[in-house]
């Protein structure tokens, strides 16, 4: 494979990451606000913060489609969904349902594994071509 082609792929990836970096940081702010509301038992504000947190995570997944990092973003989405389900079940007196959050947590682990498998395979392919 041509080294110029590899460099162009690296710069395309870097350009995408630079564009979404501010949204990732905003996403973290929403996530922290949601969890702070959980800690302070601000039920309706915490429930409301689920919407921008999940929405921004979905947007980040869309922007990273086709990249290996998309799998980590899927893991984050599942983690936020599990975390939000757990929070809402506690807030609205359904704590007996919080164990159902185990499914999205498990899916998060699956996507983390896929990320590392694909990163390893891509890393080995790049080493062989250089």
Mind explaining what this structure looks like?
This protein has about 130 residues and is mainly α. The chain has one domain (about 5-130). Helices cover about 85% and strands about 0% of the residues. It starts with a helix and ends with a helix.
Structure described in brief:
The protein is mostly helical and 130 residues long. The protein has four helices and no strands.
List keywords for this structure.
130 residues, 4 helices, single chain, 85% helix
Share in helix: over 70%
Radius of gyration over C-alpha positions, nearest whole angstrom:
18 Å
Mean pLDDT: 85
Kindly estimate the percentage of residues that lie in beta strands according to DSSP: under 5%
- The helix-and-strand class reads mainly alpha
Could you give the distance between the termini?
8 Å
Number of helices: 4
Number of strands: 0
Query: What is the helix/strand order?
Result: HHHH
Question: Can you summarize the main beta sheet?
Answer: none
Q: Choose one word for the global shape.
A: flat
Count of individual domains: 1
Low-confidence stretches: 5-11, 125-130
List the helices and strands and how they pair.
Elements: H1 3-40, H2 43-63, H3 69-91, H4 102-129
């Amino acid at each position: 494979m041509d080294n110029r082609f590899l460099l162009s792929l690296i710069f395309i990836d870097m350009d995408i990451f630079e564009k979404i970096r501010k949204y990732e940081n905003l996403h973290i702010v929403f996530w922290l606000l949601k969890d702070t509301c959980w800690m302070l038992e601000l039920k309706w504000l915490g429930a409301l913060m689920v919407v921008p947190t999940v929405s921004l995570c979905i947007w980040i997944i869309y922007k990273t489609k086709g990249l290996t990092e998309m799998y980590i973003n899927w893991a984050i989405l599942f983690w936020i969904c599990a975390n939000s389900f757990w929070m809402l079940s506690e807030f609205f007196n359904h704590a007996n349902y919080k164990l159902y959050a185990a499914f999205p947590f498990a899916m998060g682990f699956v996507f983390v594994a896929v990320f590392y498998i694909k990163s390893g395979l891509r890393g080995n392919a790049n080493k062989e071509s250089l």
